[in-house]
Each structure stands twice: as C-alpha cells, then as structure tokens.
Amino acid sequence: MKKGLLVIIGIVAFLAVIGFIMGPRFYNKALTLKEGATAQWANVESVYQRRADLIPNIVNTAKGYAEFEQETLTKVIEARSKATSVTIDPTNITPQQLEQFQEVQSGLSSALSRLLAVFERYPELKANENFKELINELERTENRISVERNRFNEAVRPFNLHIKKFPNNLVNNFIGHFSEMDYFKAKEGTDVAPEVEFDFSN
Length: 202
Known about the structure:
Blueprint: H1 2-63, H2 70-85, H3 95-119, H4 123-126, H5 129-164, H6 168-175
Helix pairs in contact: 1-2, 1-5, 1-6, 2-3
C-alpha cells in the first residue's frame, strides 16, 4: 500500500517538476503559435469578405441589361447574404464552425459559377470595361482565397505539433489549456476556384 502511494506521489511530483520547469516555455511558444494561426484566419476571412464586397458591383452592372436573368442575380444575392452572416471566433475555432462557414461559402461559389456561366450569353455585357475589371478582380480574389486557406493550415500545423509532442503533451495535459486546432478542409470540388476567365475579344 505504501509502495503504491509512493509511486503516485512520485508521478505527481514528476509532473509538477515538468510543469514548473517546462510550463512557461511551453505556454509562451504555444500561445505564439496559436496567435499566428488565428491571425492567419483573419486573412482568410478578409479575402472572403473582399469577394463578398465585389458581388454587389457585379450584380449592379448586370442589372443594367434588361434581359439578364433576374433569378440568377437573386440567388447570388441570397447566397452572399448567407455567407456574410456566418462568422467564426478565431480564438476558438471548432469543426462545426468551419463546416458551417465552408457550407455557406460553397453555396456562394456555386451561385457565382452559375452567374458567370450566364454572362457568356451577353456579349455587350462582356464588352463593358467596368465589368471586365470586376471579373478580373474576382479572379484574383478567388486565387487569393486558396492561398490564404493554405497559409492558415500551414500556421495550424506547427501549433498542433507543438502541443502533441512529448513531453509537451504531458505539460499541456497538466495545465489543461490548449486544444488541437482544426484545419480548413474544403469540400470535394470546392478547393478549385470558380472559372471566371472570359474571352473579351468578341
């Protein structure tokens, strides 16, 4: 009985020593890495917001063409509204939040794809200089979204590795502070930006 008690005391003392010696260094590095990941998430949201900001201008340009499909424009506006209504707390990103965020952004991407396909039927609209610039900016933004999502995952990886490596995992279990962050995982087929290239030579 005494031997078992001594073992327990020894384990507790060992963990206490690890926590005392390694705790501050582990905590500070983990905090720095997590802050880097959450800051990168802000960049992800920023480019998604940039895309959302472009849509009203694109829609308004299309509205100038009386025969343009109003139903298509309405679906884009509705999808944009849903996408901009979902926000994530970058200090506490959960799988459920990421899934919801990705779902509404995918909905907007699909609506944009349909809108851009419809544009092909309107050569006068395609020739509009303002429209050309908006579409070019949308293409650049879609590419930027992919870049920033990858950078977010790259920022999450060292944080997750840091808190899971031995003996950091023991320290983290002892202080019970940091949880593994989730990666941004695009749904199948949504990791590719919508095709927004047009032939403006006509």
